[in-house]
């Protein structure tokens, strides 16, 4: 197993490198980079004299700039912008420098926030951790027992009506359900039971120690319900189908013939084999819960987390944040994938990755 772990860790290096290289190459062809963003902001808000730094435009102004909206601007001003954002260097040199910094976990500073990227991520992390951890706990705590019970009661009335609820929950986009909850319970047209925005109340620091967790859960109730609706649907059906496949196998019939109870058969024999496919999907669920899955929900409920930070950075072309979050979550995904393989061997000792070709 030690050799397998070492090979997987070594394979992470070219994988991360490939992800970052492809993303970096795509960005080079994307219009509206940070230089154009600044030019657009300045041309919309300032006069021509201020754009050239407040000096007389004695030099010949750029008429054929590579940037849209730069016509009439001082070439020296454009050159300063390029140097400020690092675009005065060739793309290959910028990429090599970026990767060398990232290997040392030096993510630089944001282009437009004047703050270290790692500090920004640390500021937004509590919101994403809260959403991600609770969604993973609740979704697995609900979907696995429900999926097992549906497998045991396959074809019954319970199985039919719960499948209907699950299918509807999966089909309805989570952001629409979130809007519905806001309209119903957050001061919309009906009840005003829950706060509309924020992670905690403005007076959170002045609350008593026992009031703080209540205030926290009060704010998190609607976002968690919104995310939970679609999060547990796939895992529930996957668990049910996996258990049904295992229940039909010969070793289950043999275990029952030996006089084992149904509980012993399900949780002593079937569970370990059926849960392998659930474990295989854990890395994707983990990354989705912490980043991609909560993007729209963070916007709807005004939660300032990593999903919102990443989206705003893409729109704003704040490349240090974009590439740093991509690097961190890609690395997290690879590490979690390795952990999932190790859990495989714990759940089913018959699996030996050491003997398999990677």
What's the arrangement of secondary structure elements?
Layout: H1 2-29, H2 34-45, H3 48-51, H4 75-84, H5 91-103, H6 117-152, H7 157-171, H8 174-185, H9 211-247, H10 250-257, H11 262-274, H12 276-280, H13 282-290, H14 295-300, H15 306-316, H16 319-347
Question: What is this structure, in a nutshell?
Answer:
The protein is mostly helical and 358 residues long. It has 16 helices and no strands. The radius of gyration is 26 Å and the shape is globular.
**CATH fold-level name of the largest domain:** MetI-like fold
Number of self-contained structural domains: 2
Largest sheet: none
Structural class: mainly alpha
Oligomeric description of these chains: single chain
CATH superfamily of the largest domain: MetI-like
């Amino acid at each position: 197993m030690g050799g397998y772990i070492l090979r997987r860790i070594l394979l992470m290096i070219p994988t991360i490198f490939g992800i970052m290289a492809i993303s970096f190459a795509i960005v080079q062809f994307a219009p509206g980079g940070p230089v154009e963003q600044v030019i657009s902001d300045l041309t919309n808000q300032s006069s021509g004299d201020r754009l050239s730094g407040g000096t007389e435009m004695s030099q010949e102004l750029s008429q054929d700039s590579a940037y849209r909206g730069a016509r009439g601007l001082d070439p020296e001003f454009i050159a300063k912008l390029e140097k400020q954002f690092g675009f005065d260097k060739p793309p290959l040199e910028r990429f090599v420098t970026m990767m060398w910094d990232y290997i040392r976990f030096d993510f630089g500073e944001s282009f437009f926030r004047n703050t270290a990227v790692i500090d920004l991520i640390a500021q937004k992390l509590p919101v994403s951790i809260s959403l991600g951890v609770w969604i993973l706990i609740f979704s697995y705590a609900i979907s696995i027992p429900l999926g097992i019970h549906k497998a045991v009661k396959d074809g019954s009335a319970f199985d039919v009506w719960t499948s209907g609820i699950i299918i509807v929950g999966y089909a309805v986009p989570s952001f629409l359900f979130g809007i519905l909850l806001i309209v119903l319970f957050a001061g919309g047209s009906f009840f005003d039971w829950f706060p509309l925005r924020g992670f905690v109340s403005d007076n959170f620091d002045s609350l008593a120690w026992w009031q703080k967790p209540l205030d926290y859960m009060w704010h998190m109730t609607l976002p968690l319900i919104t995310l939970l609706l679609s999060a547990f649907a796939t895992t529930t059906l996957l668990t049910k189908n996996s258990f049904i496949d295992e229940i039909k196998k010969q070793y289950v019939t043999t275990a029952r013939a030996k006089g084992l109870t149904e509980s012993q058969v399900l949780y002593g024999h079937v569970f370990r084999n059926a849960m392998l496919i659930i474990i295989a999907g854990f890395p994707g669920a983990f990354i989705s819960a912490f980043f991609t899955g909560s993007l729209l929900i963070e916007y709807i409920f005004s939660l300032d987390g990593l999903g919102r930070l990443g989206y705003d950075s893409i729109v704003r072309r704040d490349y240090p944040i974009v590439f740093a979050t991509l690097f961190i979550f890609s690395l997290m995904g690879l590490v979690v994938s390795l952990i999932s393989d190790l859990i495989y061997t714990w759940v089913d000792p018959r699996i030996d990755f050491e003997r398999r070709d990677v």
